[in-house]
Specification:
The chain is mainly α. It has two helices and no strands. The longest helix is centred in the middle third of the chain and has 67 residues. The chain is rod-shaped, with a radius of gyration of 43 Å. The termini are far apart.
């Protein structure tokens, strides 16, 4: 509870009928209410600013998401196109003939070892 609240204030006494409340009590009450009103106003303003900020962030993220989806679509189409170009080119290209590792490198057996070719050094 806020400091100065009269809900826990044991010294506060309600005015009896026919008697006037003390003017200092009225001033305190008016001041407390004014302070509370200003605090509530500031709180509402902060809430509004936060909501506006979240709304702008949401709009920006949606724009970014749309741009990224568009880029993904373009890249997917480009990948399909390049795959089709590659598949149509493969039959024509002799450099892409499948080669097995056995054809590239002779098998290495421990009982059979070919000496390295000596290269003369000049």
């Amino acid at each position: 509870m806020a400091h100065g609240s009269d809900s826990n204030d044991t010294s506060y006494k309600s005015p009896s009928p026919g008697s006037r409340p003390n003017s200092s009590d009225n001033v305190k009450k008016v001041m407390r209410r004014e302070k509370n009103r200003i605090a509530a106003q500031k709180s509402r303003m902060r809430q509004t600013q936060k909501a506006d900020s979240l709304h702008l962030e949401s709009e920006n993220l949606e724009k970014e998401n749309a741009a990224l989806r568009k880029e993904v679509k373009q890249l997917t189409e480009e990948a399909k196109y390049l795959s089709s170009v590659l598949s149509s080119h493969e039959p024509l290209c002799t450099g892409l003939a499948p080669q097995t590792p056995d054809l590239l490198y002779p098998p290495h057996h421990s009982s059979y070892h070919q000496p390295h070719i000596a290269v003369p050094h000049y």
